[in-house]
Amino acid sequence: MSQETTVQRLAFWSIIIGCTVLALKYVAYHVTGSVALYSDALESIVNVVAALAAWWAIRVSHIPADRNHPYGHHKAEYFSAVLEGALIIVAALLILREVWFAWQTPKTLDQPWLGLAINGGASAINAIWATVLINRGRIAKSPALLADGKHLMTDVVTSVGVFAGLVGAVLTGWTILDPLLAVIVAVNILFQGWNVIGNSVQGLMDMGVATEETIQIRDVISANAGGALEVHDLKTRVAGRVTFIEFHLVVDAKMSVGDAHVICDRIENALMEQIPEASVVIHVEPEDEAKLPIGTAAVPFA
To answer: Is 154 within the bounds of a domain?
Structure first.
């Protein structure tokens, strides 16, 4: 099974699992009447909508390049992640609205242990699936899967906090703990929503690769640039799962086009072995375009 097929199947199953978890959390809220469990269920609605958006975006991102989109459709996943962040913020505001009403008329929870058991089972499902999405999202360099997984993991953390707090509320009889926990959930997911949007916007702004990966790229180029004189103006950008790499390669002005092409092919193949989804553009220049003195043993970076 190709990586593309795997990513699309994971995105589809996120919808199914999201609907299942939503149903369980709503039952938990219906059984108890807890505003904190209501907030947890409301966040699960966001999870389902976000999973639908991620599934759509991943399908679009795998459409081959065409006349109107010569660089492909990879950035579609960032739009999904931005939408997810916005939905998270909307959910947090709706939770705060519900908290306001609950704060004015606090009430004792109905059948708390049954509701907590159901909610705990839903959270366990979310924890397992979030781990799968985060791991596969990193491997496939899928912003949509990664954002979905991180959001679900946030949901798990807040659910654990809600669970512990409601146990305390039941044991102590402090009904005020219920809306207080909902406020904590709302603030937490507001923070997470802001992070999801911020990371996605960076992708839309053509953010370069991390420092560690830049060093790796430079090392690969240097190790495979034998016959060239210098490399300069290295630039990178990330669009979804694809890493775009471009740089200038200085060669002897008397070198034939064929020999220069051999060097370029060697570098490009080596880069694609390290970064399978890399797109490499190399601009070949004569030696009078060098930015450093020519004559060192190794191929220098300027």
So the answer is: yes
